[in-house]
Amino acid sequence: MRLPITSALMTTTCTKLAPTEPQHGVPWLILVTGAPATGKTALSVPLAARLQVPLLTKDAIKERLFDTLGWSDREWSKRLGIASFALLYDGIVAHLQAGAPLVVEANFKPQFDTTKFAALRERYPFTLLQLVLVATPEALQARFAARNATGERHPGHVDTSFEGEFAAQLKAGLYGPLDLPGTVVVVDTTNLATVNFSAVIETACEWVTGQSQSTVER
Length: 218
Prior knowledge:
There is one protein chain. By secondary structure, the protein is α/β, with parallel strands linked by helices. The protein has one domain: P-loop containing nucleotide triphosphate hydrolases (Rossmann fold). Helix content is 49%, strand content 13%. The chain has 7 helices and 5 strands. The chain is globular. It starts with 27 loop residues before the first strand and ends with a helix. The model is unreliable at 2-23 (pLDDT under 50).
């Protein structure tokens, strides 16, 4: 099920949290995805804290690899990016094997990751919520450049040399929801000042509560 694009100004109330202990039913998985600079970290960190479940992020893994193995140029960053995704999937498998819910944040690409998650789901069934953050290419490129100028990101990403490639990726439309069964909520973050991430978190919480109730009913 795919919900319409929203500016995230909705209001919902979460009155019950789903249990975070391993369930006898099917565990749930929330993916926070979208292009770089869409605000995934700003959403995923408080979301995982609100739901009291682990948060796995591709960039946290990648930056640990930078700190362990060092960093140099863009090609090295790409190599560690591939390794980071592999380790991210390992972490997802470990949680699903234990029947444990979790939040995962990364810039997933449908052309690569849809088939991976479909295969994963065959082995370890789960219910899925995708929170897909989107913004206009112009807003993302400006935000990406501004972020690079602040130096707030780990230097190993070498983002300044990625700006041209990033623009090409946006033009090609490489980011978006994975083509998988489940619920998709698309959040427009073009103007971050108007985005109410708390409302998005409460919507996710309501979804999680529904999964918990379904598990109990089984």
